Amino acid sequence: MEHRGKLELTWVGKYEETTIEPRILIEDPEKSYGDPRSENMLIHGDNLIALQALQQDFAGRIKCIYIDPPYNTGSAFEYYDDCLEHSIWLNLMRRRLILLRELLSDDGTIWIHIDDEEQAYLKVVCDEVFGRGNFVNMISVNMKNIAGVSGGGEDKRLKKNCEYILIYAKDYTLLPLFNGPYTYTEISELVQQYEEERKSWKYTTVLLDPGEKVYIGSTVDGDGNEIKVYLRKNPSMMSVRQVAARDGITEKEVYQKYGISIFQTTNAQSSIRTRVMEYRSEQGITEDLISIEYIPRTGKNRGVVYEQFYKGDKCRLFVWLRDTSEIIDGELYKKDLQGTYWDMNAWMKNLTKEGSVEFGNGKKPEQLIRQIFEMTTSLGDWVLDSFLGSGTTAAVATKMGRKWVGIELGDHAYTHCKVRLDRVVDGTDSGGITKPVDWHGGGGYHFYELAPSLLVRNDRLPIYQINPEYTFEMMCEAICKIEGFRYKPEGLFHGFSSEKRFIHVTKEFVNAEYVRSVASSLGEDQSLLIYGMAIQSDMILPDNIEVRKIPKNLLEKCSFESEVR
Known about the structure:
Layout: E1 25-27, E2 33-34, E3 41-44, H1 47-58, E4 62-67, H2 86-103, E5 104-114, H3 119-130, E6 135-142, E7 162-169, E8 182-186, H4 187-196, E9 205-209, E10 212-220, E11 226-233, E12 236-239, H5 240-247, H6 251-258, E13 262-266, H7 271-283, E14 289-294, E15 306-311, E16 316-320, E17 325-328, E18 331-337, E19 341-343, H8 366-376, E20 382-385, H9 392-399, E21 403-408, H10 412-426, E22 444-450, E23 455-457, E24 464-466, H11 472-483, E25 486-490, E26 493-498, E27 501-510, H12 512-519, E28 527-535, E29 545-549, H13 552-555
Parallel strand pairs: 3-21, 3-22, 4-5, 4-20, 6-19, 20-21, 27-28, 28-29
Antiparallel strand pairs: 1-22, 2-22, 5-7, 6-7, 8-18, 9-12, 9-13, 10-11, 11-14, 13-16, 14-15, 15-16, 17-18, 23-24, 25-26, 26-27
Helix pairs in contact: 1-2, 2-3, 5-6, 8-9, 9-10
């Protein structure tokens, strides 16, 4: 084994690597679905080959990658090898992580879901691939009640109820602040918890009617920006308990019905509140309730008109339950900022039914993926999952308005991913995050198969030849991709790598006369690469012309294998 002169994780076969053939992708129009203008991609095939195929078009473009690879425990579904010799598993992951890193944008992150069987080893591999300084966090995820969690008490080990998510940045110095994340607790459970712990639960008042809104003037904030002030005449407020008695419903039902109008008050110290108090005093305002409108310059509400309510002479600020809560599956949940321990129990309801596809082991809740995307991405950003499984990542991305690439091996691409995503596009998928994000359908995706290898061994001779499944156009596109040219047939040229360098592919005999005829289309200071199957051996070529032979020179560029790990 080669030694690299530094402390690192080593294993058999680590440095026995070959350049992977960058295959072309072939769209299956019958399986593509929805809006043809969609850029989303569902790819069926080996993800190592697919990731290599994506490099030319997507290097540096993916904002967030989430992967849930086989844990190497022997319990994954049938299409993944999940009980591999340790070194084989490490090679499998390392080769893919190298390609995934190249796809990440400079400010992007990768989230890798794993359990404790290989977590420690994977962490060291990621340190090597991404750089130890680009490690962000390791999330401990409570997987209790999630499909696929192992039982306990059978042996000397403690019951497994946690998994882990490793987070790495492409470049930590360029990583923006995360938006969140949050914990979710059902409101009635939270209220009961407060009572049991003898704590004061403050979200107990309902603003049934904010009253007539009467503009009375304005003041300014510290930067001189206008703050409009309004009187609220004849407002109506009642306690949650009073509303429950009036409406003949439970307090839990009050929270569900009036959640957006429930609040507490606070003496929060802020420059805006100080300005409002001064204005109230200066104007001699006696009304109990006032509201203001202004445009924050910072924070989550920056740039838009924002309304606040204040009560009494002390200007107690209304803090709304709706600002820190969310409806999930018809239930109201309080959400709070959390750290590196994530409890997924609130997201587990009807997990087995999410997406209307069964997935024995490994299905993750849509809310988990939603949280990751909310933390790291914005509308229109690219996300990727190269172990797509049941299609959760792509489903969530569609519902959240993210563009996505999903890669899945085996029939699950057809039986799970496609079925689930078609329902998402149609708007008939009612589970997961559908209601919280108000999803009604739309979008679409293109379905791609990986092309077979361009070169295959001759059945009778120890040589390689062009795969008979390839058309001439497919061959041209494949050679362009292998050589790093963008395939764009135009005139005599089949692609370009820059404004001054072009490529031409032919099955004709390439001699001096043929070269001159093709080169005549070149402009000043432009160069040309010609690939041919038969070439005159004694040609004298100008400096701006290069001729290479099929398949000899292609074999020098990469490995042509039908299967890879």
